[in-house]
Amino acid sequence: MSPRRQKKISIKFLGTSSGEAIPRLGCDCAQCASADLKDKRLRSSLLINKKVLIDVGPDILKQLRKNQIENIELALITHDHLDHSGGLNDLKKVNPKINVIRLQPGQHFAHEEIEYYAFKVKHSPVITTVGVEIGPAIYIPDVADLDWAQKYLQESKLAILDGSVLNRSFSGHMALNQIIIATKNMKNLRKVYFSHNGHTRLSHKEMTKIVKTLGNEKFFIAYDGLEITV
After folding, report:
1. Where do the DSSP E strands lie in 32-151?
2. Which end is more exposed in the chain, N or C (fewer Cβ atoms within 10 Å of the end residue's Cβ)?
3. How many CB atoms lie within 10 A of CB 227?
4. What is the number of alpha carbons within 13 Å of residue 191 lying toward its C-beta?
5. What is the rounded average pLDDT of the residues 53-68?
């Protein structure tokens, strides 16, 4: 792809959970029983510069209302699992003219001076799944290993990666501790955020302590409503 432009990019985490929202129904673990708002998670979705959605899960209308978001111009889908595309029909009811792109590997385009590039990652044996370069940032919410993503990780300043499972890779998701090992020494990555966070039964505060102990101060657990600039 061509050199990336340097326009500042705002990234807001509308949701940071994995396949189901947290707290989980009927569970009283430390994570689900937590009073900390950072432990209340809807399914993963990003908002780029207040105009572009990346992934549209079943919670999308709640996310739009909660964050008072209007005038979305574009929705990008990383893959067709329910937690990433299950809210498209709801979104189209409130915004019938929205442009929806189901990203394919190798797809490259610009929107409002921000370049997007989709590349294939390992996740599902039957559903094509992509990661996305967003200017100098990279978004890989679901990944079984990072082999196919190495080139793109090494080009990026900030990464948003799969936080589904903590210690044991499972069902198309690379363990968080293994992701930390793979990215800890990448000096180009100034910050790494974990989204698509799973039901670890550990609170946001506990998970934050774990990722900084396993890694260092550049690792963070994202939470719903967090807004960052890159």
Report:
1. 45-48, 52-54, 74-77, 99-102, 108-111, 114-120, 130-134, 137-140
2. N
3. 10
4. 12
5. 97
